[in-house]
Design a protein that fits this description.
The chain is of the alpha/beta class and about 450 residues long. The chain folds into two domains: about 25-90 and about 390-430, Roll (Urease, subunit C, domain 1); about 90-270 and about 315-390, TIM Barrel (Alpha-Beta Barrel). The chain is about 35% helix and about 20% strand. The protein has 15 helices and 18 strands. The strands form four sheets. Strands 1, 2, 3, 4, 5, 16, 17 and 18 form an eight-stranded mixed beta sheet that branches. A five-stranded parallel beta sheet has the order 11-12-13-14-15. The protein is globular, with a radius of gyration of 23 Å. Pfam families: Amidohydro_1. Keywords: Hydrolase. It comes from Aliikangiella coralliicola. InterPro entries: Amidohydro-rel (IPR006680), Metal-dep_hydrolase_composite (IPR011059), Metal_Hydrolase (IPR032466), Metallo-dep_Hydrolase (IPR051781). This is Amidohydrolase family protein.
């Protein structure tokens, strides 16, 4: 044992000598690194007026100080924002990472993770996926093996014995299964439970009750019944979509029960995008730099058809229904019910679609700062982790983006991403641009249901 110890000491000693001779240095521990963002207009994510000429001090992946006239610690790495806006990294709280734009796509996951970061989306909630797949993805990102945003996930949709989406669902025949299902989900690291359309009220109540014991909130997508009173009173945390029917009495009950609404106003496919945005949006760098050519060509073709083929457009998009939900968004907001930004992204326009979501919220009547809050502070509150991230405040995770323009005045300026920081580490955005020469370029499985 003594001789073995001496051998180890000798090896370490030789290694230290080698470092001195070669000039190599052992990197400082991550928790010791200090970074200062200076000369920034700061939007804190709380909805407050921006701080002009502000600074943010970051130490070990967390925010240490925010404000104007801060003293920058000696030896800190300086990032000069030069008047750009510093704001919290954005969160999309309704995505599906197993979808690739047309169907299921498990092999092309890195393209979508890159697209999210490229667009300044530093946190997502996957609301229905193949559980081992999204669990492994989450673990790999946490371990630093792959690059990606912070991921929360629900795993499979909990649906009836005849699930709508079998490949990403777990069937529940009766409420007696709730305990087993919630334990299975908890043991596999989920952050919440997604109760889907065909479940009965007693089944949802059972999931809520057993989920509470394990710290798992329930998010409900009940299709036409989203926002209905008989579901509002189940104890759920949030509805996965903006309700299509909103009345004053139900809004009061929602507020009393602290129910939140994930907005998903951007959902609707290429026809909706084209009808509301024309064709020019396809030229956005956030789309062109992250979308495979085959998918972009198909999107362009379908978008053009949506503007010329009235029947095709009417079959896939209802302007009346869109306006109804826009009206409901404002009614819900005015009732004091928290709105949380989410897109229901299915792999098409990943990342970019969240900026469209924020534009639609402003179109519905929110101010730009109020819209930003839905993708920052409110997103963190949905997970009850607003003490850890979501706003630019001391002690919180340093997920920060720098953008050109003034998104507090023009919400579209959130698109002008210049820098992305996740947990205090600056992401090299140029490396996130899709390279079709090295990308797997495997197309989605056109999975039939």
């Amino acid at each position: 044992m003594c001789s073995m110890l001496m051998s180890v000491i000798k090896v370490l000693g030789n290694f230290a000598i080698l470092l001195m001779l070669t000039g190599l240095q052992v990197p400082a521990r991550a928790q010791d690194k200090v970074t200062a963002i200076v000369n920034a207009v700061i939007i804190d994510g709380n909805g407050n007026s921006p701080i002009e000429d502000g600074s943010i001090i970051i130490r070990g992946g967390k925010i240490e100080a925010v404000g104007s006239q801060l003293k920058v610690p000696s030896g800190a790495e300086i990032i000069d924002a030069a008047g750009q806006v510093a704001m919290p990294g954005l969160a999309d709280m309704h995505v599906h990472l197993t979808w690739g734009g047309e169907g299921h796509d498990l092999l092309g996951y890195q393209r979508r993770l890159n697209a999210l970061l490229y667009a300044g989306v530093t946190t997502v909630l996957d609301t229905g996926a193949v559980l081992p797949f999204v669990q492994q993805m989450h673990q790999a990102i946490e371990a630093g093996k792959i690059v990606g945003p912070n991921i929360y996930y629900v795993g499979p949709l909990i649906d009836s014995v005849d699930p709508q989406w079998p490949a990403v669902s777990l069937s529940m025949a009766s409420e007696t299964q709730a305990q087993k299902i919630t334990r299975y989900l908890k043991n596999n690291g989920v952050s919440a439970i997604k109760a889907y359309a065909k479940l009965t009220r007693p089944q949802i109540v059972a999931l809520v009750n057993h989920g509470k014991k394990l710290g798992l909130p329930v998010i409900v997508d009940a299709w036409f019944s989203n926002g209905a009173e008989h579901l509002v009173t189940t104890g759920l945390r949030a509805f996965a979509h903006t309700p299509r029917r909103v009345i004053d009495d139900t809004l009061k009950i929602m507020k009393q029960n602290e129910v939140q609404i994930i907005t998903t106003r951007a959902v609707g496919g290429i026809v909706k995008h084209a009808r509301l945005r024309g064709l020019s949006f396809l030229q956005s760098d956030l789309i062109k730099n992250t979308t495979p050519s085959w998918l972009l060509e198909k999107a362009s073709k379908d978008a053009s058809r949506a503007l010329t083929d009235k029947q095709f457009a009417n079959d896939n998009f209802s302007e009346h229904f869109h306006k109804l939900l826009q009206k409901n968004v404002k009614l819900i907001f005015d009732a004091g019910i928290p709105l949380v930004a989410g897109t229901d992204n299915d792999g098409l326009f990943t990342g970019e679609e969240l900026h469209f979501e924020l534009e639609l919220l402003v179109d519905a009547g929110l101010t730009p700062l109020e819209a930003i809050t839905t993708a920052t502070k409110n997103a963190a509150k949905l997970m009850k982790e607003d003490d850890k991230w979501g706003t630019l405040e001391p002690g919180k995770r340093a997920d920060i983006i720098l953008v050109d323009g003034r998104p507090d005045k023009n919400i579209s300026d959130t698109r002008n991403i210049k820098l992305v920081m996740v947990r205090g580490r600056v992401i090299e955005r140029e490396k996130l641009v899709l390279n079709e020469q090295t990308d797997l370029n495997v197309r989605d499985t056109k999975f039939g249901y």
